[in-house]
Amino acid sequence: VGHGFFGEYYHQFFPDLPSSCSCGTAVIHSRLYILTECPLYEEHCHLLIDASQDLSPSAILRTHKGLTTLGKFIDASNTFGKT
Question: Could you tell me which of 6, 11, 4 has the C-alpha nearest to residue 29?
Answer without folding.
Answer: 6
